[in-house]
Design a protein that fits this description.
Strand content: 25-35%
Distance between the termini: 27 Å
Number of strands: 32
Helix content: 10-25%
Largest sheet: 9 strands, mixed
Structural class: alpha+beta
Shape: globular
Radius of gyration: 29 Å
Number of helices: 14
Amino acid sequence: MHEILRLKNLYVPTLKEDPADADIASHKLLLRSGMLRKTASGVYTFLPLGFRVLKKIEAIVREEMDATGAYEIMMPALQPSELWLESGRWDDYGPELMRLNDRHDRGFCLGPTHEELITALVRDELRSYKQLPLTLYQIQVKFRDEIRPRFGLLRSREFIRKDAYSFHDSQESLQETYDAMSEAYGRICDRCGLEWRGVEADSGQIGGKVTTEFMALAESGEAELVYCDCGYSANTEAGECIPHPTTHNVSELTKIATPEVHTIEELAQFLDIPESSTVKALSGKDAEGNLVVLFIPGCHELNEIKAARAIEGFTLLTDDEMKAFGLHKGSMGPVGLPDEARIVADSSLKGVPQWVVGANEEGYHLLGAAPGRDFTVDKWTDLCVVKPGDSCPDCHCALKGARGIEVSQVFQLGTKYSESMGATYLDKDGREQPFIMGCYGVGVSRTLAAIVEQHNDEHGIKWPLAVAPAHVCVIPLQVGDDLVQPKAEEIAQACQKLGFEVAIDDRDERAGVKFADADLIGWPLQIIVGKRGLAEGKVEIKRRLTGERSD
């Protein structure tokens, strides 16, 4: 049986005003309700009520992980650099990796993730196919040196995450675990009271080619996603893009003066045509430093992740590099490029017979530039960021848009880490084979913030029952008397015996303060005990979710 929480002695320092540096609802309300306190930029202390919510989310995650057959372990947050050098990520991960040296000048990092460590852990002792599949997980503090921590727990430098790793001897086995984890992640979102979507995503620094993000829908979310009523959904960075470029019919290649025109918007206005009838050029170089010029519909933006996938080592040119190649910013086109330039174009332009493009001369553009006649495209590929209005790749209806908070993600890693780190097992024929791996992460502290983003109003938080710091708060309007407080205590103990988690606001405060704090903290059920009601044999019950009151 849970102890009754007594607010008189509980450390819950609520605030009347929004903190100046808090921008979104969850950041404001978690600070105001006394659940968090800022320690440094992107670093927070969980106070008693916030910690209770955090532990409830962790309990839900543990139950779902254990139900999949995964086993919990605990790995160190401090990881030796040599493991990351083995995998090749020590340099690739970038400045977000928190690095440090010990007194012997040995390199370490504070782990943002644990692929290297888990691979090293099993490679000497998980030796036979008979031991597979195996899934291990942990719930632990992670670290990321964010260049600009913001939005409270949504983009912090220290955060709590569940990370799981699975080891397999076949793709079929990996797929089974991947599907089981995906189903478990959906249940975690449901049990936490989140409205969510599973979306196609990019694997980023983790690696692998197959991955799904679980997004809690929220206007404050940093991620943009598209979805269709047929069930398709994707992060805009990863979704397949099917734009609708339009042609500007000019039968012959025509060069026109376009003074002071440097952007697609300015070009479309100058010619009085839609931006979808123009073609945008972007210049870059590949891993060997060779010039690559990309062409996409003028109404879309370049997806640099897709570009890097299509061209090994691709990076955009700086202004100085463009000048060195003889390119004119704002006036680039496929006709008259340097001979060494490689032309890569978005697949949607393949069916557009005439392009409106730069003339590779300052202050001039071309109308009617025809692929195959005036220039040759070396490669057609998907290069654009998908956006609402593009066609769904599954049913071809127009995609809708939303914003979301990434709360969890599942990955099929394949042999990325096992091959680079020499982690193998013996198959049925006694041959050494690299493990096929999966990786599965839940942002526990981020999930807490996402719940608040979806469940709040102008008065405070509205916790779903499963994750609330307590289910019931009993509020005596008088304390220290011989009527109201004893009855409130009796009610609190009765609720406790029924299995509810109970708080009692036994502070010597005005009723208005208690009511405001009860709504701010977000107790799901409030039982208000006062002299007037007791004289009639009644107490008032308020349901925080709906605001409904009854005697």
